[in-house]
Amino acid sequence: MQAITRRGLGGGLAGLGLLAAAGAATQEAPWPNRPVTLLIPWGAGGSTDAFGRILAQHLQQILGQPFPVDNRVGANGTIGMAVAARARPDGYTVILSPNSTYAIAPLIYQTPYDAERAFVGVGLLASMPIFLMVHRTFPARTLPEFVEQAGRPGTRLTYANPGVGATTHLAIEWFLQLSGAPVLEVGYRGGAPAIQAVLANEASMVAMPASAVLPYLQSGDLRALAVTTAQRTPLAPDVPTFQELGFAGYEVVEHLALLAPAGTPPAILRRLNEASRVALTASEFRDRFASLAVTPTVGTPEEWPAYLAAETAKWRELVRERNIRVQ
Fold first, then answer.
1. How far apart are alpha carbons 97 and 85 in whole angstroms?
2. pLDDT digit string (tens) for 259-313?
């Protein structure tokens, strides 16, 4: 057996000390010390993607590490959410998601993750109003006139649906439930084709976020019958709300939230939340977000569970009563 000398023992202890110091240094390395992947579960060019890319640039400036964007598209965003749910909860993978994906999609799609337990919220970041639009030549000039026209014998009105389970889809279904208007659904692959269908008079109406339809509203090619927010929006102050027009309690907002895999340390969530708040409220960034017709609404990680529960409950009954499902 090899003899253990004082020198050998000292050298071994010194080596263990170096390993312990290295381990401590690794554990104490501040977050972030490498790139943070920002998953976006919708395609490039849409409102979520455009907002996310601006946010990623500013988070990189604030936190000092790259925030590369990774678009994972499909099944109303649930494919990207599944990728995020499987990621390590170390703060180096986060996902920017609209409420159609984190609150509505699990009510319609079979998801490989538990929507309420797989994620923690960094917080709500922004909101977007939705407009109910018709072609500029459409006979009805107001929402009540649209409902009256839809009910006339022999009339066949349709709405363009950009995707099953989208916030815009449920906004119309809620309006139809409250009004009783017999308007038929016509499915399209995305927001742009749905808008083009109304522009070409192939569909009678469409509901879309402000960022997608403001150019057509400003040019006069499309006309807004109502906005889905509780108060009128400064983006189009002449457009009445559904509540003004007699639809009590009607409010639909497209929310964007930043989420992380469950188990992500609270300190990292707070730092991400603080950095997002700086990015969204700084004057030098405000114009870029305003160009997307989004309003910063930065929530906190602590507020997330109650918000998610309320948003999910809001849509669960409508999905059941209107029999909304993937064909």
1. 13
2. 999 999 999 999 999 999 999 988 877 788 888 888 888 899 999 999 999 999 9
Task: Report DSSP letters for 252-318, one per residue.
Answer: --EEEEEEEETT--HHHHHHHHHHHHHHHH-HHHHHHHHTTT-EE----GGGHHHHHHHHHHHHHHH
- pLDDT digit string (tens) for 157-175? 999 999 899 999 999 999 9
Cα angle 283, 284, 287; round to 5 = 85
> Which tokens sit at 262?
């469950």
3-state secondary structure of 33: coil
With a threshold of 0.90, does the pTM exceed it? no
Tell me the residue length of the chain. Answer: 327
Scan for tokens 């363009």, then name that residue: 160
**HEC string for 148-170:** HHHCCCCCCEEEEECCCCCHHHH
